[in-house]
UniProtKB/TrEMBL annotation:
Cellular localization per UniProt: Cell membrane; Membrane
Pfam families recorded: ABC2_membrane
Similarity annotation: Belongs to the ABC-2 integral membrane protein family.
Gene Ontology cellular component terms for the protein in this record: ATP-binding cassette (ABC) transporter complex
Keyword DNA-binding: no
Listed PANTHER family: NODULATION PROTEIN J
Origin species: Cnuibacter physcomitrellae
Name listed for the protein in its UniProt record: Transport permease protein
Cited InterPro entries: ABC2_TM, ABC2_TM_bact-type, ABC_2_transport, Nod_factor_ABC_transporter
Chief location of this protein within or outside the cell: membrane
Key word Transmembrane helix present: yes
UniProt GO MF annotations: ABC-type transporter activity
Length: 250
């Protein structure tokens, strides 16, 4: 019953995304532009950054960036559904409140997976090399992080119910996370005080883990910390999202 409800919600959300794929394409454009316009600038600096291939450093950061930014804005569609009465209609159905959330998150995760595969495939054309099994595991970590962000975004959308409130709030969170996670450049090249501040940002450990996986370093402490923080954020995101959905649809 629970999984049937989840699939029904997922199928409806997927149909809506397929009918209007503009947001999927727009979400993919930013990391592709970074790859095309910023990636070549890093190639001469690969040795300085401690790697032989600049793209094994840069592409994992873009994957995490795609996960965070693409999923954090998933809640905007939920506000639109709430305004048009869809959430109110779902309230009178016997469907599990958790399934209502999970179906939407699975749609976001599938979109993110497709976007991530396209980004990595394009990166190979630019010269990305590394461990393919490690890339697959790194991609899974990035997609799971996206699921956690999507759950948190949906919870925030149901709480604020306003794009005008949600947009500046998300931007104020996403920008420091982007800069302090070392997504574009590793934090190891920054001053010590900046490295200390970044130690308090969980996504920094995920970025480092995905980078480690891309070069084939699977069984390392860096990878372990990335996995641990990914699991924590997924559990936390699902808990907050489910709690908000149940409260809203009570």
């Amino acid at each position: 019953m629970f999984w049937r409800d989840t699939f029904i919600v997922f199928r409806r959300q997927l149909r809506m995304a397929v009918r209007n794929p503009a947001w999927v394409i727009i979400g993919l454009m930013q990391p592709i532009l970074y790859l095309v316009l910023f990636g070549p600038l890093l190639e001469p600096l690969a040795g300085t950054l401690g790697t032989q291939n600049a793209y094994t450093l840069f592409v994992p950061g873009l994957l995490v960036q795609l996960s965070i930014f693409g999923s954090l804005f998933a809640g905007f569609s939920l506000i639109s559904e709430w305004r048009s009465g869809v959430i109110e209609a779902e309230r009178v159905t016997p469907a599990s409140r958790t399934a209502l959330l999970l179906g939407r998150i699975l749609r976001d995760v599938l979109q993110l997976l497709v976007q991530s595969v396209v980004l990595v495939a394009l990166a190979f054309a630019f010269g990305l090399t590394g461990s393919v099994p490690g890339m697959i595991v790194g991609l899974i970590l990035a997609v799971l992080l996206g699921g956690a962000c999507a759950a948190a975004s949906n919870a925030l959308a149901l709480t604020t119910k306003s794009e005008d409130v949600m947009a500046p709030l998300l931007n104020s969170i996403a920008l420091p996370v982007l800069l302090l996670s070392g997504i574009l450049l590793p934090m190891t090249i920054g001053p010590q005080w900046l490295q200390t501040v970044s130690d308090f940002i969980p996504t920094k450990y995920i970025v480092d883990a995905v980078r480690s996986l891309f070069v084939g370093d699977v069984f390392t402490l860096t990878t372990l910390w990335g996995v641990v923080w990914t699991v924590i954020l997924v559990v936390l995101g699902l808990w907050v999202g489910t709690r908000t959905f149940r409260k809203e649809n009570a």
